[in-house]
């Protein structure tokens, strides 16, 4: 590694992908590392922005590392905007610094919020929520907001709804689909969350789109016009229709891009010693059933770690890990592991059980013919990630998983009833007489993993 010790590695972006790469590079080598970001001087947890607004956390609480962590670990930080990159001379041109030379370049530029291409989308009072600056803008506008309209039916939309509701601001949410997040959640779960959003006082309009945003004489938002011709008065519009890869600084260059920056299995671009990770990276050959661009915190972290090992140790291909995501819809926690699509068709099937209160459910997907488990979708329950991933990776049979399901629960003693009901549901559907075999204690989990290692 001696010949690489004087290398300069420049990382554009200080989100979870970029900072994970920087930390892992430092663990594995003595290369020079410089991280550039125009958004913030220091890495912060983007998923916690809403909790700063709601007063649950302070800004310093969402910065995982003390400010001197970077200098102590030989990681230089530049708080500036990248204007362009010269791949021939291997230089990064920034807004207020001299050109920065690199030996290797890691692009971890993240995402940008999508907008709605309608008249009025740029008037004062129209916002998105992705960047730190977005949060600051919303905070500045909040004292004058009397009625908010949120356009979109995804995770950012529900975050905005909860944030504004916490400040006692009336919220109207406009969703294009027939239920909230219906393009991701199966129908039962989508309807559950739709009811839950309405129970929290949000005025939810389904199968509704916005055709125009109207402004007053001062250029401030005053109303939106919907696809059915209704006019909804408001003085704040939150646009939450998804994100797209941030590739502005590399457009019109020799770097090959599609929707994102194209990378091979080793996260390498078409230009030698230039890599892309995180939300901005688009895999040329994703595995069957997975997307080429996956915008998830866990994915970005895995990419950063893999790339550091690839650069410093030995050629290491990025393996798309078992899909995992989590969120919270007001009071209902959501977890998904593996493959659980919105539309479940043969050869996939699922075993679904909803609690009597309509606020909790378990769904396990499995191969209809082989009965091998493919995924888990939890509403209002928390499963152990390591147990679920082990069940999926080892291609466990549905009956085995259901009979030992207590092992997956955090604090299983509180979920004896749901485990029994789920076992009963399995027996009824399959004409079986199986019974629960695991107590779900921590010791039983340890024994499970010990047995797995021996197999």
Write structural notes for this entry.
It is a single chain. The chain has 455 residues and is an alpha/beta fold. The protein has helices at 16-28, 49-53, 68-72, 132-141, 155-166, 187-199, 297-312, 385-393, 398-403, 416-430, 442-454, and strands spanning 8-12, 32-37, 75-79, 82-86, 91-94, 100-101, 104-107, 111-113, 126-127, 148-151, 171-174, 203-205, 210-215, 221-226, 231-233, 236-239, 243-245, 261-263, 274-276, 281-283, 324-329, 332-338, 348-354, 361-367, 373-379. Helices cover 26% and strands 25% of the residues. The strands form 7 sheets. A 5-stranded parallel beta sheet has the order 3-2-1-7-19. Helix 1 runs parallel beside helix 7 (297-312). The protein starts with 7 loop residues before the first strand and ends with a helix. Mean pLDDT is 94; it is low at 1-5.
Proper CATH architecture of the largest domain: 3-Layer(bba) Sandwich
Q: Round the mean pLDDT to the nearest integer and report it.
A: 94
Spans where pLDDT lies below 50 across 5 or more residues: 1-5
End-to-end Cα distance: 36 Å
Concise overview:
By secondary structure, the protein is of the alpha/beta class. The chain has eleven helices and 25 strands.
Give the helices and strands, then pairings.
Blueprint: E1 8-12, H1 16-28, E2 32-37, H2 49-53, H3 68-72, E3 75-79, E4 82-86, E5 91-94, E6 100-101, E7 104-107, E8 111-113, E9 126-127, H4 132-141, E10 148-151, H5 155-166, E11 171-174, H6 187-199, E12 203-205, E13 210-215, E14 221-226, E15 231-233, E16 236-239, E17 243-245, E18 261-263, E19 274-276, E20 281-283, H7 297-312, E21 324-329, E22 332-338, E23 348-354, E24 361-367, E25 373-379, H8 385-393, H9 398-403, H10 416-430, H11 442-454
Parallel strand pairs: 1-2, 1-7, 2-3, 7-19, 9-16, 10-11, 10-16, 11-12, 18-20
Antiparallel strand pairs: 4-5, 5-6, 8-17, 13-14, 14-15, 21-22, 22-25, 23-24, 24-25
